[in-house]
Structures are given as structure tokens and as C-alpha cells.
Specification:
The complex is a heterodimer. By secondary structure, chain A is an all-beta fold. Chain A has strands at about 5, 10-15, 20-25, 30-40, 45-50, 55-60, 65-70, 75-80, 85-95, 100, 105-110. Chain A contains no helices and eleven strands. Chain B is built from no helices and eleven strands. Classes of the chains: A mainly beta, B mainly beta.
């Protein structure tokens, strides 16, 4: 069966520090991968998606970047965090365009 | 960016009442999903609808996809406290999944 792992679960980082969130999927190959950010009690904002190794599509210009160095690995990064980068970050994968499966999320607090 | 607006944003009802949540967009989607999310966790899929006008039932939940595939509704009959959570619609187009603005439901015992 397929599983998705996302870590860390919580992170407190100072303003100006770098960020690296990692997401890996097991049990499938060539999945579509997604990074979302969510404000408390609100919907998910699509940040990046990838259909293959090295292929990244950005939805919203911002202080973040994404990379896909391996087929089942998706990384969200920042060189210098801003206060506004705080939020709940979710990684997801899709076997087909009719359902998405999510990781447990990372609660990022920038202080 | 595709925008999906959900209404209402917040809903607090008594156990046993019925409710409907709406998801509207000006964009056409190849499929539309409904998810439910608990605090601190990722959303979990409830249903996927792919055909305009399609109606799906999942126990006390009824989902409908609009004829033009731009909107959807979720109806819950006889709500229970276990239905409490954040309900999200999501539309798929091409390789993108866009999520709605969310409806936070609280069912009071």
C-alpha cells in the first residue's frame, strides 16, 4: 500500500533562518506531488506541484521554493524565513486526478 | 489560480439538524472532491464526483456536482457530533488540485 511521510511535525524557526521540509511517498512510482499551505481553519493554498523529477510548477510567487531530487521525494525550502511564512504545510500525492492523499502536515511558526 | 468559494464559512448546529454546504467556482473542473479535516491532520477524502449532475450518497451525506461542473454541494442529514470538522471541496483541472475556502462545522450534542 502507498504511504506518505512528512516531517518534521512541528517547527519553530527565527525570522531570517533557512527552511527545509521533506516529503516522501512509498509504494508508488511517478506520483504527482503537491505542497499546500493552510491558515488556521481555512482552505488550502496550492504552493507548488510536480509531475516528475526536476519538474516544478509554482502557483504563487513568494519566499519559498520546491525541489524534486528523486521520484518520490518533494522538498519545500526557503533561504530566509519571514513571519508571514508561518502556517500549516501539507504535502500530498495523487495516483490520478480524482483524489489526493495527504501527509500529517508540518506546523511552522516563525518567531 | 482557480478560486473555489465555500459557504457558509462557519456553521454551528444542534445534533439532529440538517445542513448544506456549497462550493462555487467560475471554472470548470474535470472532477470535484470533498474532504474532511481534523485539527492538526491532513484532509481525508470523502467522495469524488466526475460527471455533471452526478449525485453520490455516503450514509447521511449527499454530494452533488453541478451540471456545468463548476459547483457542488454537500448535504448532511441528521448531523451528529462526530460530523464536526473542517469540510473542504477541491477541484481538479489538468495536474492541479485547487481547494475551497473551507467550512468549519460544529455539531452541538
Amino acid at each position: 500500500s502507498q504511504t506518505i511521510h512528512q516531517w518534521p511535525a512541528t517547527l519553530v524557526q527565527p525570522v531570517g533562518s533557512p527552511l527545509s521540509l521533506e516529503c516522501t511517498v512509498e509504494g508508488t512510482s511517478n506520483p504527482n506531488l503537491y505542497w499546500y499551505r493552510q491558515a488556521a481553519g481555512r482552505g488550502l493554498q496550492l504552493l507548488f506541484y510536480s509531475v516528475g523529477i526536476g519538474q516544478i510548477s509554482s502557483e504563487v510567487p513568494q519566499n519559498l521554493s520546491a525541489s524534486r531530487p528523486q521520484d518520490r521525494q518533494f522538498i519545500l525550502s526557503s533561504k530566509k524565513l519571514l513571519l508571514s511564512d508561518s502556517g500549516f504545510y501539507l504535502c500530498a500525492w495523487t495516483p490520478r486526478q480524482t483524489e489526493a492523499f495527504f501527509g500529517q502536515g508540518t506546523r511552522l511558526t516563525v518567531v | 489560480t482557480q478560486l473555489l468559494e465555500q459557504s457558509p464559512q462557519f456553521l454551528s448546529i444542534q445534533e439532529g439538524e440538517n445542513l448544506t454546504v456549497y462550493c462555487n467556482s467560475s471554472s470548470v473542473f474535470s472532477s470535484l472532491q470533498w474532504y474532511r479535516q481534523e485539527p492538526g491532520e491532513g484532509p481525508v477524502l470523502l467522495v469524488t464526483v466526475v460527471t455533471g449532475g452526478e449525485v453520490k450518497k455516503l450514509k447521511r451525506l449527499t454530494f452533488q456536482f453541478g451540471d456545468a461542473r463548476k459547483d457542488s454541494s454537500l448535504h448532511i442529514t441528521a448531523a451528529q457530533p462526530g460530523d464536526t470538522g473542517l469540510y473542504l471541496c477541491a477541484g481538479a483541472t489538468g495536474n492541479e488540485f485547487y481547494f475551497g475556502t473551507g467550512t468549519s462545522l460544529t455539531v452541538i450534542p
